[in-house]
Amino acid sequence: MLPALLGVPLIPGWITPGIPVVLLFLSDYEPGPEAIQALFALQFLVFIIFLFLGVTRLGSTLVDLIPRSMKGSTIIGAGIAALMGEIEAGGRLATTPISLIAGGLVCLYLMFSVSFKGFVETNSFARKIVNYGMVPGMIVAILVGFATGEYAVPDVKRGITTPNFGELWNYLPFSVGFPDASVFMYAIPTAVIAYVIAFGDIVVGQSLMNRVDHLRRDEDIDNSIDRVHLVTAIRNGGHAFFAPSPGLAGPIWTAVTDTMACTMGVVLAVYGAGWGLATGAVLYFLIERTKLLGFTPDPDSPGADDVIVQPETIPKS
Predict the structure, then answer these.
(1) If 0-12 CB within 10 Å is exposed, 13-18 middle and 19+ buried, where does residue 155 land?
(2) For a FRET experiment, which of 35, 108, 252, 306 has its CA 20 to 30 Å from that of 149?
(3) Which residues lie below 8 Å from residue 218, measured CB to CB, with a gap of 6+?
(4) DSSP summary character for residue 295
(5) Between residues 89 and 317, which one has the greater pLDDT?
């Protein structure tokens, strides 16, 4: 409820593509108090990053300095890790193949199919369906799972459930203890990756607001990046101390991120955040950097970033 209360016009969610990376980070710690301490350290660092960049208004400046290939590789690496977790032995695809495949195909068709996109342009009902993103695919997966017996039909009962706050306290840093400095240091690469992914969500949110803003002339939508940073910081700080969550607190709930890239994504998925960031940095300076050690390549050479195209060289239509 905080984003709406504090003036952020976005539906909040998790930093969903970062969950596999977070789980890779947590896998280095023993389940229980040790893993909870590591999760606190990670989410507290995410809180610090958002707070600092929001207060200083350096958020957009920082992300502009990060090469696009590294930002894209971070996201695709998280996606690869998520897929690997689903399709490996013991993953959910092995235990519920029919429902997941059916739901996945529906999601792919509704969200990416060229033929369905053409159908949406001429059919109002199809436009309403596509507005719900992955939800239709999820519903299909659930119904198919019930029909095939892959999912048990839940036993729904009426009543009010009282949250067990006493048990929750046993899983908070106040009870299990706070991590030492080494855990915070080890969590830095994962926290940076989580922020890069989350900033991509902020950009998506801005694009969505800009696309519909002209339809509501009666209201001025003030989608401040700095405010989004500050509110997301508050949410992560609250989670870190009172409800640590591997999903972290993200600025917007987005269904799919379809950015693709180089080698860094695979390294990130297999070996974790630290090696992924290091690989991306090495590849950037080795392959993409046009000014290395004071050397500037010939502007006519392929791949040079700073090629200046003269007007007379542009072919006329």
Answers:
(1) exposed
(2) 108
(3) none
(4) B
(5) 89
**CB-count exposure of residue 276 (10 Å: 0-12, 13-18, 19+):** buried
- Whole-angstrom distance, CA of residue 155 vs CA of residue 9: 37
Burial environment of residue 133 by CB neighbours within 10 A (0 to 12, 13 to 18, 19 or more): middle
How many residues in the chain?
A: 317
Cβ neighbourhood burial of 45 (10 Å; 0-12, 13-18, 19+): buried
Q: Nearest-CA neighbor of 33 among 143, 166, 173?
A: 173
For residue 250, what are the β-bridge partners?
Answer: 13
Alpha-carbon gap, residue 219 to 216, rounded angstroms: 6
CA–CA dist 27, 128 (Å, integer): 41
CB-count burial class (<10 Å; 0-12, 13-18, 19+) for 175: exposed
Q: Which of 195, 169, 180, 186 is nearest to 248 (CA)?
A: 195
Q: What is the pLDDT of residues 155-196, one digit of tens each?
A: 888 888 888 888 888 888 888 888 889 989 988 988 988 888
* Angle in degrees, CA 1, 205, 132, rounded to 5: 80
Name the DSSP class of 153.
Answer: P
User: H or E stretch including 155?
Assistant: none
Whether 178 contacts 37, CB under 8 Å:
yes
The predicted model gives 228-257 an average pLDDT of 80
> Helix, strand, or coil here: 250?
strand
User: In this predicted model, what pLDDT tens digit does every residue of 5-29 receive, in sequence order?
Assistant: 888 777 787 887 778 788 888 888 8
Instruction: Give dist(CA 278, CA 80) in Å, integer.
Output: 18
**C-alpha to C-alpha distance for 267 and 75, rounded to whole angstroms:** 12
